[in-house]
Amino acid sequence: MGPLRHDPRGGRRVSEAAPLGAVRRSHFLAGFLTLVLTGALDQIHKWWMIEVYRIGEKGRVRVTPFLDLVYVQNKGISYSLLDGLGQGPLIAVAVLAMLALLVWIARAENRPLAVSLGLIAGGAVGNAVDRVRLGGVADFFLFYIKDVFSWYVFNLADVAIVAGVVGLLYEYWSENRKNAGKST
User: Fold this and answer.
1) Does the active-site annotation cover 139?
2) Cβ contact 131:42 at 8 Å
3) pTM (predicted TM-score)
């Protein structure tokens, strides 16, 4: 609760803090805007890579000694798991996950939590749109170390999802530290 101030209309002291509903609305708005921007940026990038840059015609493009641009359509989930399942069930799972994330965003108690959830939901939206539009998720980035190690091919939506999960872990960790400090 914020500091108290004098109310000139009635002489009583009132809180300057915004009502809980207004605070939660601002958290929801931050999370929802993050979702929309993340999904939009992911789709714009994928459109540019496929239609303008025409990565599919170029094959493997070396960017650095450890990063190439490629075009892979992932019909499954991470590491092409469940690629034989078909797009319908994967789209349904993505929609259900996004709805659950929207509810979680609406209940977020702070802005970093809402933004982290927005990153995850926005990435899920971007990849779900690919499944509907392209029949699979468009991935472009390949990290590797010579012939020793090769990471799976990923896209901006995947980066957003991972960043959101890191944000959730940070929120969980910082909340636990705060609670541990209160109990000592």
Assistant:
1) yes
2) no
3) 0.78
